[in-house]
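Checklist before submission:
- one chain only
- standard amino acids only
- sequence pasted in full

Submission:
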Amino acid sequence: MNSNTIAYGIIRAVAIIVGVLGLLWFLYKIQSVLVYIAFAAVISLMGRPLVSVLKRKLKFNNTLAVVCTLILTIFLFFSIFTLFVPIVIEQGQLIGEINVNKLGDDLDQLNQEVSDYFNVEKLSLLELVRKTDLVQFFDLKAVPNTINSFLSGFGAVLIGLFSVLFISFFLLKDSQLLENSLLVFAKNGDETKFIQAFSKIKDLLSRYFVGLLLQIFILFVLYAILLLIFEVNNAIAVALIAAIFNLIPYIGPLFGGIFVLLLATTSHLGFDFSTVILPKLSYILIGYLIIQFIDNFLNQPLIFGTSVKSHPLEIFLAILIFGLLFGIGGLIVAVPFYTAIKVIAKEFLSKYKIVKTLTKDL
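Returned file contents:
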């Protein structure tokens, strides 16, 4: 091996490293665009079945079916948004009408009743706040900056929403667009395997996201019935938020339960703790656990088992690993990414025994 070969090898290695770092830097700079494409891909996957139905059953042409699907998507998001607007306005009015002295008396009374019921030392919430550093966050000088940040963020959301819908239109209109764009990364001779893998991934993830949407809807209906029965304020919005929490596997229902119990407590503030608040919280907790039981043993096996064709233990381990690596975001994307990895492995690494075992149902 002469010096020219060594020098060429070193230069080639440095060029590869520089190229990889440049690509990572470029992806970092356009991360918002990548997020838009990811959201658009999810919308297109969820909208594919509806587009197919409109074309097959109602004889819509492709463009009209895509437009109707996007209009329905916009209507859905707008309905969710308008569901929260009156609640925010109502809460703002209530905050303006709060009798601070009465609120303090109610909280103090509740604190005393809880302490007496559980036979524990009375906890001073005011003293607890003073012992923490929370007070430093209540800086009135920061209010204008907060408002400006909100307004600029709202503008960014509008731009993002338009971008997502625009990209979604073309992904739905031309189902091969994303596939052809990614095909440039396939090696010569592997194009057929690449297309088969991509088509399988689209099919599985489309069923998964539609199933996930159905799961959230079922949970929303059950939560709403539970909270309306026990007269929790803003029951519909609280039920929707609690249902959306379930998008985060395992820890999402825990946060949702805490949120529901907290809102249920504030809805009955001023009532007697032992005779009103505690029984209602107990009933709500029992109802919430029953709904979670239904979701865990009926909804989730149907979605994970049927749509992505993976064993529950596989799903649990994938969620655990992605959660440890990437946090809450990893928990949310674990199932789609694991499904994509399985399909790609089946197409390109099927000679390995472990791959054959894990992908035998695909």
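Reviewer check: The CA atoms of residues 207 and 216 lie 14 Å apart.
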